[in-house]
């Protein structure tokens, strides 16, 4: 059985002081969930703060029950790349995961498949688990191209990686039209796109990997809809934006996953 992951993407929010307060609140609430106290919990919980907040959050995110990740990494190992942070640096400060390919990076930084491949390969080499994001825009869905776009985005990256396993790579399907809009893909849409994603992975890399790889839902997920979404057969948790900035809401989403274990 695939283990759930609930990951909080804090985006451009919370400096070290505020980040420590939020992470402490999440940790304290998680401590009351008995199912997370076992050696093999049925749900992993991850927070991804801004770079400058990572060291502060590390004080409380020790891997059990709270994991620590980053929102992106450089597509170079080192060198004259002002402002960049390498995957190896993230591993050194305690990160276990890194998000790659988020729709906002695609939109605002114009990041490409070539960059995603380099970033994920470097993340793997540093011992990090990569969360690779993909998904269609509103006009692409309205034009009936959602499945084609998702296929192209997965095909443009996964088969080109040096290594892909269910341990070093997760996927996150983002219906971009549902991010920060209050709109949520219906359970039928979410399941259809997750199942399609799993089919594409199977065609590219084999049925065993497709069956084992975790695929997160990355659109407006809240405590009120999380359980319905996570109960879908091909949804393995969520990549949470706004709701991850409130400890009660975020842990409410974790509770929805835990209730299904």
Layout of secondary structure:
Elements (H helix, E strand, L loop, with lengths): L3 E6 L6 H15 L12 E6 L5 H5 L7 E5 L16 H6 L4 E4 L2 H6 L4 H13 L3 E6 L3 H5 L3 H10 L13 E5 L13 H19 L1 H6 L2 E3 L8 H5 L6 E4 L6 H12 L3
Parallel strand pairs: 1-2, 1-8, 2-3, 3-4, 4-5, 5-6, 6-7
What does this structure look like?
- With 261 residues, this protein is of the alpha/beta class.
- Helix content is 39%, strand content 15%.
- The protein has helices at residues 16-30, 54-58, 87-92, 103-108, 113-125, 138-142, 146-155, 187-205, 207-212, 226-230, 247-258, and strands at 4-9, 43-48, 66-70, 97-100, 129-134, 169-173, 215-217, 237-240.
- Helix 1 links the parallel strand 1 (4-9) and strand 2.
- The radius of gyration is 17 Å and the shape is globular.
- The termini are close together.
- The mean pLDDT is 95.
Keywords:
11 helices, globular, 15% strand, TIM Barrel, eight-stranded parallel β-sheet, alpha/beta, 261 residues
**SS-derived structural category:** alpha/beta
Biggest sheet layout: 8 strands, parallel
Low-pLDDT runs? none
Distance between the termini: 10 Å
Write down how many β-strands occur, each being a DSSP E stretch of 2 or more residues: 8
